[in-house]
Input
Amino acid sequence: MKRRALLAGSAGIAGAGLVPSPAAASSSSCWVHTWTAMPQLTEPGNLPPAPFTGSDSVLVDTTLRQTVHTSIGGKLMRVRFSNAFGTTDLALTSAAVALPAGGRAGVAEIVPGSSRALTFSGEDSVVVPAGAQVVSDPVPIRVAPRSNLTVSVYLAEGQAGLNLTSHPGSRTTSWLTKGARPLEAELPGATPVDHWYLISGIEVIASAAAGVVLLGDSLTDGRGSTTNGNDRWPDQLAARLRDPRLAVLNQAAGGNRVLHDGLGPNVLARLDRDVLGVSGAAWVLVFEGVNDIGTAPATEAGQGQVITALTGAYRQIVQRAHAQRLRVYGATITPFGGNTGYDDPGGLRERARVAVNGVIRGGIFDSYVDFAAAVADPAAPSRLDPLYDVGDHLHLNPAGYAALAAAVPRRLF
Output
């Protein structure tokens, strides 16, 4: 069964203030993110396992090895490390990038001879102040598009306290081991953990390239996708388009909301860091709101308030992004009928979803993608198509994420 999602054209948009795409403005080479992960404060249950978390510190005398999946390629790259949620200094003793063994995601081994040490302002080590981030010096290593890349970092002193910056929903296996081993080809006996820690971005030098930043929640973060499979809908979108000039940048987190903090800051609070501060960004696609609707009271007043507040928040996102010459697209909120937590007997939240989707389709954004139409059950539009439902009637399986990726028209970029 094939269904085509609807796209609103830029014509007839009421007051959106469409801005020209900066991607078409210059052919010069510049730094563009090829991969991102939204920084979050690590919850206690997602901290590194013992002995890598102690009573008052984390990652002491620890090598941390992680793989990420790029979108565009380049011959020169640099890495961003984040201490956004740390309350103490983060001392990185040494770090390196390499190619993972077999080109695979989530492996502890790297290709012998592929490792390149990272420096920071010419130094092997760096201290990241609380709340800050650092960018490594450029390093020559060929980064292939839509490939896996390994980042290793050693922390001799670790970080004092338990406020660690991470991205728990990595859907990718990382590896922890004691001792200074970031350049070693193998890490025998290393401990696996399915989270990313400390890394928040990979940039490459690219010509005439630009990125689309995806603001989202668990549906974009990839809940229901395959661990180490890189089959979230953003991954599948990059694989489908195969555009060497288009970076697809996932700035989503499970439980994220537009209006209130949840797992990570709300969208309005994180917009500057996670969108406007992303090098090379030219477009934003907003696919958020289901958690705002689902956690608001299932009353006429509660859902009426969230409809009004989301409408205002979407306008704020558009205004702030347009000020930085970014185009802003919206994606309709997908069905959740039958979900234990969000679906209510009176159907008030479903009515709110329909109303908010009307706002998204109504011209508030520069254009929109109809994700709701792409994955809804044709016989019951308030529910997900059973072919795409991971089982909780809210999140999607890889086939469902493929349907979302297929619904995004190439002409948007």
